[in-house]
Specification:
Chain lengths: 460, 138
């Protein structure tokens, strides 16, 4: 049997993709409403019925799922210096597909503990100190976390000299405390892979059950990861390929939603220009960032503030008043879709602004230092100017008639030369909306997943 | 194990990109048994402080070669106090001011700014190592 079913339990919809791994084709896709509150199987069955209407009845040899249902995997990251271990912990959590509820540096105080309790994270990642470095703060923070009054799984990924002590302290109040390698073993050395893996295994053991996703267990073999982790995995596969199937090389993925915009990059991001010194924390090869203030509906007003009326108006070639009027409309009614040419233009411009700003925050920046010998440059973050492929995924982009116009926001612009955005990328669209599914399929059949993505993710 | 070594933060401050002395000092302190957290060139004050906090370093060695030392180095002590590093050892050396100003004057100026030791351009790294071991009681 060559049929595999891949499920994405999303926040609103449960999306399913049936693939034939022998013929390497998508047999069909369908969706139902996500029903975590009652029984997750209701929405899934609805989707399967819809699928079978198109494909006829199918039998599956394997069923895999990913989930961003019930708010996604909610995490809090705790570190010492905000730009160092706290940032490293945040990146590990983002890479694991989490939704970051808060990032905390230095000694936690009582107010912050109260705040964390209210944020209701499902996993807390506790870092702090390089190996052999600061010991006091991570121990203090472990002690503070025991006063949360809540039993939340904690992953300890800090100074190895005191990690066992931190674990011991936390175990006084928490049932699940897992230790893994330090996210920053040495200053400015990023080591987020072990933490990512650990987050995933805690997700599997604990969160799947807590979210009621285990009700799908009789039908689904495994809900293996949070959806963004599946997309990241797919992006990595598409970029690197496998031993038998070549990849596309360095790439970026943009996923615009109603509330947030996610950007992924698979690239080293080393300087491409001469006379450049790298500064700051090293960047993960596979990097994910999420912008909570850039989105098309729930975040429309926030986007308007962040991008400014002028930027959106310029993109649309309209007046700022037109833009403002439309933003107010969609924020008030999130189901609203453009009804005329002007609104259509604003909609595209908003998408382009989401892409542009989210990519600007994702990529590195170049700062010029003037010396008597001419200028020298300092680069912080990834130089993605040589990235040749930008993939668009997610409902907003793939359901749009001109997805390429939206994605063009990802490209380098002369008005912001310090932003190291792709200079002349080509744009691909995940038309069938299969990226998350391919990330799942890649767990078992990586070659097939790469080939299918190359076939189905096409030029926009 | 390297983790038990005393850590020192080293870097060239400000917009200064003279890299050679930095490598020599890195080598000298590493050979003397310290773990050097080397930030390289073009280092803002903030990064010296952050590095020292995270690694629990016992001293910060600041270099300035290109003549703007006085401007770049001012305020680092205050920043250390502000960040909880308090009286961590601060050494500074290189070509701290432009041209051939009387060193005694330069010395007292930097001491006033809160540096524990201030070095002349011709200083041998070995002497700095001896001073640091003394100051740390090693
Ligand atoms: C090579 C060089 C450059 C190269 C640097 C290449 C590189 N990436 O390293 C280039 C050409 C880029 C350059 C540029 C400039 N340079 Co230049 N450069 C030199 C030169 C010739 C040698 C520096 C060197 O490597 N020395 C060898 C190392 C081993 O010695 P060191 O750096 O002094 O370090 C030792 C000690 O000072 C001490 N030390 C250093 N730091 C510290 C810190 C602590 C805590 C301690 C305890 C000790 C210590 O220990 C080190 C090891 O023994 C010097 C002149 C000279 N002979 O020193 C000028 C010199 C440093 N440069 C100078 C200047 C002015 C500049 C420029 C501003 C432009 C110009 N007019 O030349 C630019 C600045 C660029 C910038 N943004 O930083 C002046 C500085 C004047 C001043 N301070 O009064 C110097 C002194 C030349 C001069 N006499 O005019 N320079």
């Amino acid at each position: 049997m060559n049929h595999i079913l891949l499920i994405d339990f999303g926040s609103t919809y449960t999306k399913i993709t049936a693939v034939d791994i022998e013929k390497e084709i998508v047999l069909g896709t369908a969706r139902g409403i996500t029903t975590v509150e009652t029984d997750i199987m209701n929405g899934l069955n609805q989707a399967i019925e819809a699928l079978f209407l198109k494909t006829g009845k199918l039998k599956f040899s394997k069923v895999l799922g990913c989930s961003s249902a019930a708010g996604g995997l909610k995490m809090v990251a705790v570190g010492l210096v905000p730009e160092l271990t706290a940032e490293a912990a945040k990146r590990a959590a983002l890479g694991a597909g989490a939704k970051i509820m808060g990032v905390y540096g230095n000694e936690l105080n009582e107010y912050e503990i109260e705040e964390i309790a209210q944020l209701q994270p499902e996993i807390i990642l506790l870092a702090g100190g390089t190996n052999g470095g600061n010991k006091e703060v991570i121990l203090h923070n472990a002690r503070m976390l025991t006063t949360l009054g809540k039993d939340i799984p904690v992953i300890v990924a800090g100074n190895k000299s005191v990690a066992p002590q931190a674990v011991k302290i936390l175990l006084e109040a928490m049932t699940e405390v897992v230790h893994t390698e330090n996210v920053m073993p040495k200053l400015n050395e990023l080591n987020i892979e072990p933490a990512r893996e650990t987050i995933r295994s805690v997700f599997l053991r604990r969160i799947v059950e807590a979210k009621g996703l285990n009700k799908a267990n009789q039908f689904v073999d495994d809900v293996v990861m949070p959806t963004p982790a599946a997309v990241l995995k797919a992006a990595e596969l598409l970029s690197k390929g496998t031993e038998y199937e070549s990849g596309l090389g360095d790439l970026m993925v943009v996923d615009i939603g109603g509330a947030t915009t996610d950007v992924y990059s698979i690239a080293k991001g080393d300087p491409t220009k001469t006379n450049v010194a790298l500064r700051g924390l090293p960047e993960p090869f596979a990097k994910r960032t999420v912008e909570g203030d850039l989105g098309m509906r729930y975040s429309a007003t926030a986007l308007f503030k962040a991008a400014g009326a002028k930027r959106i108006a310029d993109y649309a070639n309209l007046s700022a008043e037109d833009v403002e009027a439309y933003v107010e409309k969609v924020e008030a009614n999130i189901e609203y879709l453009p009804q005329n040419e002007v609104e259509e233009k604003v909609e595209i411009a908003m998408g382009k602004a989401c892409t542009s700003l989210a990519v600007e925050r994702h990529v590195g920046q170049l700062e010029t230092i003037f010396t008597c010998f001419g200028s020298a440059f300092v680069q912080k973050g990834k130089d993605l100017s040589d990235v040749k492929t930008v993939v668009g995924t997610g409902g907003v982009i793939i359901h749009h008639e001109q997805p390429k116009e939206i994605l063009k926001g990802a490209a380098y612009s002369e008005s912001t030369p310090e932003m190291l955005k792709p200079e002349c990328p080509k744009y691909l669209i995940d038309e069938e909306y299969i990226m998350a599914s391919m990330g799942l399929l890649g767990e078992v059949y990586p070659d097939v997943a790469v080939r299918m993505m190359k076939k189905y993710i096409v030029r926009g | 194990m390297e983790n038990n070594k005393v850590k020192v933060v080293l870097g060239v401050i400000g917009a200064d990109c003279h890299a050679v002395g930095n490598k020599i000092l890195n080598y000298a302190f590493t050979s003397a048994g310290f773990e050097v957290v080397n930030l390289g060139v073009l280092v803002p004050q903030e990064e010296f402080v952050n590095a020292a906090i995270e690694t629990d370093a016992k001293a910060i060695l600041v270099a300035s070669l290109y003549g703007h030392g006085e401007i770049d180095c001012r305020g680092l002590r205050e920043r250390c106090r502000e960040s909880g590093l308090g009286d961590i050892l601060l050494y500074v050396g290189g070509n701290l001011v432009v041209g051939k100003t009387d060193f005694a004057e330069v010395h007292s100026k930097f001491i006033e700014m809160g540096y524990d030791r201030v070095y002349e351009p011709g200083i041998l790294p070995d002497q700095v190592v001896i001073d640091l071991k003394n100051d740390l009681g090693l």
